[in-house]
Design brief:
There is one protein chain. This protein has no helices and eleven strands. The protein is mainly beta and about 120 residues long. Strands 2, 4, 5, 6, 9, 10 and 11 form a seven-stranded mixed sheet that branches. A four-stranded antiparallel sheet has the order 1-3-8-7, with no helix packed on it. A hairpin with a 6-residue loop joins β4 and β5. It is globular, with a radius of gyration of 13 Å. The termini are far apart.
């Protein structure tokens, strides 16, 4: 089992950058594919980005591609999401999630463990 704790959220103006972190407990972090999802009020959970267990391959949701970058440091048991050129539409609670398979998925139902989320608010 793995426990996930997100951090790095906050209130920023449009055009700013933020970096989210997701600290994972346990010694098996490097065997999990990882993903970021977000959920805005009254909206369904949306896929943001995912990365394979070794970090060699990534994929992004269409609304963030080219602005966000997912990465991981398996030595530090940490997942990151670098968010640039933030827009008010990016306002949401951001969650990291772990998938026991090594290949990533864009489907939140495939993920086994979730963090509690961190709020990102982008003002116009």
């Amino acid at each position: 089992q793995v426990q996930l704790v997100e951090s790095g959220g906050g209130l920023v103006q449009a055009g700013a950058s933020l970096r989210l972190s997701c600290a994972a407990s346990g010694r098996t972090f490097s065997s999990y594919a990882m993903g970021w999802f977000r959920q805005a009020p009254r909206k369904e959970r949306e896929f943001v980005a995912a990365i394979t267990s070794g970090g060699a391959s990534t994929t992004y949701g269409g609304s963030v591609k080219g602005r966000f970058t997912i990465s991981r440091d398996n030595a530090k048991n940490t997942l990151y999401l670098q968010m640039n050129s933030l827009e008010p539409e990016d306002t949401a609670v951001y969650f990291c999630a772990a998938d026991r398979r090594r290949a990533y998925s864009t489907n939140p139902e495939q993920y086994d463990y979730w963090g509690q989320g961190t709020q990102v608010t982008v003002s116009s």
